[in-house]
Inverse folding.
């Protein structure tokens, strides 16, 4: 199946989004095509900015402070458990965080904080599925595929923490 991508600048560096033939977002990553390919398996991915224009507009709106929830169609590939975690991530409002333990409790499995962390780490659609809003139980900015500094910048942008 053909998939399409574009890379564009954001205030926090280049961002790349891939969509399927239906226009649903299947992957997103800070960086270029190489970083995106680390997030999903694709036989063929073609550079077609027009197919990604809607995602680019919403991400630009996010960074401009004019968009809080994304309205894009999403189609991440994952197990049913991963899908449930990613759905829970999308329910974390802009400007708020949850700990891994809180997410586990929200999903009805309070002992699954580590499994939640693994599913969070495999999120193929960063930013749009806001895995950056998950923090350690002690409030620490534990783990982020693109580095804790970028995670801190995203949370500062959302007003969760003070800008560095």
């Amino acid at each position: 199946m053909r998939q399409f991508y574009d890379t564009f600048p954001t205030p926090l560096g280049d961002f790349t989004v891939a969509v399927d033939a239906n226009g649903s977002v299947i992957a997103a990553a800070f960086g270029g095509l190489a970083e995106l390919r680390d997030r999903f398996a694709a036989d063929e991915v073609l550079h077609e900015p027009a197919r990604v224009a809607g995602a680019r507009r919403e991400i630009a709106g996010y960074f401009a402070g004019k968009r809080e929830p994304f309205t894009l169609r999403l189609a991440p590939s994952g197990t049913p458990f991963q899908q449930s975690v990613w759905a829970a991530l999308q329910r974390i409002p802009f400007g708020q965080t949850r700990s891994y333990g809180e997410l586990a409790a929200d999903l009805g499995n309070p002992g699954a904080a580590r499994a939640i962390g693994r599913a969070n780490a495999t999120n193929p659609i960063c930013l749009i599925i806001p895995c950056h809003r998950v923090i350690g139980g002690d409030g620490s900015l534990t783990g982020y595929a693109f580095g804790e500094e970028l995670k801190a910048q995203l949370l500062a942008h959302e007003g969760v923490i003070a800008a560095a």
